[in-house]
Design brief:
345 residues, alpha/beta, FAD/NAD(P)-binding domain, D-Amino Acid Oxidase, Chain A, domain 2, 2 domains, 9-stranded mixed beta sheet, 7-stranded mixed beta sheet
Length: 345
């Protein structure tokens, strides 16, 4: 199978890149190894995402997905007082608490409607250079002229193509979700500094709350923070965050990397990285989601993938196919250019 662009990864950056490319007329295949059903970190969206979602044309779809408005953040940085920061002064309005898996799936659905082939539940094994582009080995090999790596903080596609990941720290997040008792106010985003790290709390849609401990990987190991007893003991000793664990735990602890890094280079002949694959920053900046959306939207795509040039290429291929029998030219001429196929799931 042949396509213009293959996107690997299932976060917001790759879904937006696929969406914009499909709208430009390129043939796009997106591989996401999950079905967008698992817990994902990054559930608080700052006000800065609002104009981006509108510019992408997915605002109504986003609001319909059921996000919870976020009007402020609160933090306790070692003192007796809790400091609050209201979004009332933001020119973009309030922020949001969202189910990140649902959010990412919503963007993927928009890419499908734009004409992208989104393959859920399918992992990419490797990407190989071949004359004229790449072969992406997945359920069915796909040839592509351009590959976009959106595999997150471990940009495995770009690294396999020669890029170097410069890790800037060893930050780890150990998180758990709680179902809140009926009638419990959801609250807002809360941060509490503790020795060697901090606690983070955020409401989730559906009467849930996420609690997470951030610390250096060595601290996580030495204090047993990735174990049920160690995590619970650390939470019980937190002055403010301990009270936020009211409710029933849903599932076990989730341990993920939150390390900052940069990729060098972030693009090369026939490939580019977007979102966390290109640059990941400290979660305290709250800029990850906005950066992912913007980097996906502003990915610099060669001119041959625009709608007009794709149409010219198809006409030229059709003429070549008419002058010969068989061959790849005739196959390309009959390719379905705008259909949306959705497999996996």
């Amino acid at each position: 199978m042949r396509g213009d662009v293959v996107v690997v990864g299932g976060g917001p950056a790759d879904a937006v890149a696929a969406l914009e490319l499909a709208r430009s007329g390129a043939g796009v295949t997106l591989f996401e190894r999950s079905g967008y059903g698992e817990l994902r970190m990054g559930e608080t969206l700052p006000p800065a995402v609002n104009p981006l979602l509108r510019a992408l044309g997915v605002w109504d779809r986003f609001v319909a997905s059921g996000p919870v408005p976020s009007y402020r953040t609160a933090s306790a940085w070692g003192g007796p007082e809790v400091a609050e920061r209201s979004f009332v002064v933001s020119p973009y309005g309030h922020g949001w608490h969202t189910d990140r898996a649902r959010f990412d799936g919503m963007l993927a659905d928009a890419a499908v409607e734009a004409g992208a082939d989104v393959r859920r539940g399918i992992a990419v094994r490797r990407v190989r250079r071949v004359p004229g582009g790449f072969v992406v080995d997945a359920d069915t090999p796909v040839r592509a002229a351009l590959v976009i790596d959106a595999t997150g903080r471990r940009p495995r596609i770009a690294r396999s193509l020669g890029a170097r990941r410069e890790r800037l720290d060893r930050l780890v997040c150990v998180a758990r979700v709680f179902a809140l008792p009926a009638g419990t106010p959801p609250g807002d985003t809360f941060l509490e500094a503790v020795p060697d790290g901090w606690w983070y709390a955020s409401p989730l849609p559906g009467g849930r709350r996420l609690l997470a401990r951030f610390a250096d990987a060595r601290m996580v190991a030495s204090a047993g923070l990735a174990t049920e007893p160690g995590w619970a003991a650390a939470l019980a000793s937190a002055a403010w965050s301990a009270s936020l664990s009211a409710g029933t735990p849903i599932g076990g602890l989730r341990v993920v990397s939150a390390a900052s890094h940069r990729l060098t280079p972030a693009s090369g002949p026939g490939w580019m990285a977007v979102g966390d694959a290109a640059l990941a920053v400290d979660p305290l900046s709250s800029g990850g989601a906005a950066f992912a959306l913007e980097s996906g939207r502003r990915s610099r795509i060669p001119g041959r993938f625009t709608r007009n040039s794709s149409a010219r290429r198809r006409r030229s291929t059709a003429r070549c196919g008419a002058r010969s029998t068989g061959g790849s030219g005739g196959s390309r001429a009959t390719r379905s250019g705008g259909s949306a196929r959705k497999t996996g799931g």
